[in-house]
């Protein structure tokens, strides 16, 4: 193995090792190191998981402010607005479970209950059920209120159940 080949291997680029002339070894090593450094810097610039999950909750709250009045008959049913809200919730739900890593139990004014980490299997199951219901709501693309209410009800129920078990109530 030539000097610097371990960098290519660790970056998943081992197939390139034999195609680069020996005279370019230094350039290859520097370029690979710079790429890996940039990847690390980008990863470290990712948003804080607590902030990100709080933003997702705010976004879902906005979507629910569209959906709930329609479900209650307090607003006319708008299939396009309902589908857009379902899509927003589904997209956020798909990432939600990964935003509760170990070490984020406290800080950032989190309202996450310790049960998320002490009952991780239950929490993951609750998130999976919510994701499934959000995906079903999007797939249903309800055209009218009668089609909307059951898919919304299932999703909203999972949402509420999860909050009850895994989120500290607001003061």
């Amino acid at each position: 193995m030539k000097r610097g080949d371990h960098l290519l291997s660790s970056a998943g680029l081992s197939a390139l090792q034999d195609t680069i002339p020996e005279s370019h070894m230094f350039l290859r090593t520097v370029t690979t190191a710079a790429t890996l450094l940039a990847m690390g810097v980008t990863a470290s610039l990712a948003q804080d998981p607590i902030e990100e999950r709080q933003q997702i909750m705010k976004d879902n709250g906005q979507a629910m402010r569209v959906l709930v009045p329609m479900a209650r008959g307090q607003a006319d049913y708008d299939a396009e607005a309902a589908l857009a809200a379902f899509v927003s919730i589904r997209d956020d739900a798909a990432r939600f479970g990964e935003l509760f890593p170990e070490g984020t139990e406290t800080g950032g004014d989190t309202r996450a209950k310790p049960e998320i980490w002490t009952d991780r299997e239950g929490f993951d199951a609750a998130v999976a059920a919510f994701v499934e219901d959000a995906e079903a709501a999007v797939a249903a693309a309800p055209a009218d209120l009668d089609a909307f209410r059951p898919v919304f009800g299932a999703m909203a129920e999972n949402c509420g159940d999860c909050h009850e078990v895994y989120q500290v109530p607001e003061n």
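The radius of gyration is 23 Å. The CA atoms of residues 137 and 151 lie 5 Å apart.
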